[in-house]
Design a protein that fits this description.
2 copies of one chain form a homodimer. Chain A is an alpha/beta fold. Chain A contains 10 helices and 11 strands. In chain A, strands 7-6-5-10-8-11-9 form a 7-stranded parallel β-sheet. In chain A, strands 1-4-2-3 form a 4-stranded mixed β-sheet. At the A-B interface, helix 6 and helix 10 of A face helix 6 and helix 10 of B.
Chain lengths: ~240, ~240
Amino acid sequence: MVTKSQIKQIKQLKFKKFREKTGLFVAEGEKVVLELLQANFGFHYIFSTIENFDIDSVIISNDQMKKITHFKNSSNYLGVFIKPIYDYKILNESETIVALDHISDPGNLGTIIRTCDWYGVKHIICSRNSVDCFNSKVVQASMGSISRVFCYYMDLPDYLKKINHMIYGTDLNSRSIYDTSFKKKSVFVFGNESNGISNKVINITDEQISIPKKNKVVNSLNIASSVSILLAENFRQNKKAIRK
Amino acid sequence: MVTKSQIKQIKQLKFKKFREKTGLFVAEGEKVVLELLQANFGFHYIFSTIENFDIDSVIISNDQMKKITHFKNSSNYLGVFIKPIYDYKILNESETIVALDHISDPGNLGTIIRTCDWYGVKHIICSRNSVDCFNSKVVQASMGSISRVFCYYMDLPDYLKKINHMIYGTDLNSRSIYDTSFKKKSVFVFGNESNGISNKVINITDEQISIPKKNKVVNSLNIASSVSILLAENFRQNKKAIRK
């Protein structure tokens, strides 16, 4: 069963300030909870409506699950996990880095984390005003990739100034990604869903690149779609380079 | 102002059966409403909390907008539009077609519609058990592209059997999209978020293709990301072919 104080805590973890205060976050759904367990994430509790899910899981009723879920529709699994401690040194050694300037939609961030995982990109830098990666909707949309891809929140211009990577900014009217040979050590910067990359960040980029479109009437592409297309092209170029 | 009967109708339009019964749908947000108006979609009402939005718009208060919005957070614009009548003949003449087998997430469908628009793909075929493209969340996520991209709901195997296009099915372990030369007249089939393409549909595809990944541990990619990567590669190949 779930105690009253557990219910209270899990509800509070919807809010960033409680996640920061406690160092905990909530993950729901079989795939997500299983992948976090497999990646050896520490946890406080694992609740399940199904028997024999995990050696440490506590069986609860569907009604109890409905009380603690962060979503409209509850799943059969919910875990309260400990946020990992990030190693900033590893970040600098990373070949491909994705940087997000004020990303605000949790579903978009989760999808980007998932795509980064697909392309072996382990590190995402987010400006401090971006949505928190341990927001339950981000965790959910990442489909478990949150266990392998790390989001670092920092002053974006400040960090980009210090790094040795080639910094590519993405916009709508620059050189085509297909006419650009990406450097091995690259940072790809993507802007806010409505306003693009902020001027402060644009000033630090080395090159502006764009995803070419066929329909000239259209003036925007979803940010998670943009990240997918760019990382795919980066992967294609690297693969071609290896083959040669 | 909004009348009681209008409030009732707009609330009912959250449900597919009322959209089907009335032939109407709800669109919210400045960009979406404006693009539908520009595309000459018929409408019953346009409500706005801001003066001088459109010649036909009715000014209402924020509190009234909160009563009629389909979302948690209301925007300043809401329109009740008439669903368009689709011309099935045009569909067959289309070069690139995206087919979705049992897509269920409205945000994913909206994002796919937006990506199709970017790449000039005007027609999406959805199996009948797919989410309705006039669901408010789909309309919202399409960011106005719903005014230019049309979703046809039909028996997928039945339709694919009749068409002359090359039919590509997408899965996780087939020939790489980078080792495939896409035909000019192509249908790209994508499966359900959890279960992939159904066997009935797989049997009708001409070729199975996959998006290669770098991280072998990962076993899934968001469907809207997959569509983005595939349509980008199709566009790149076509552009290259024109240049030659």
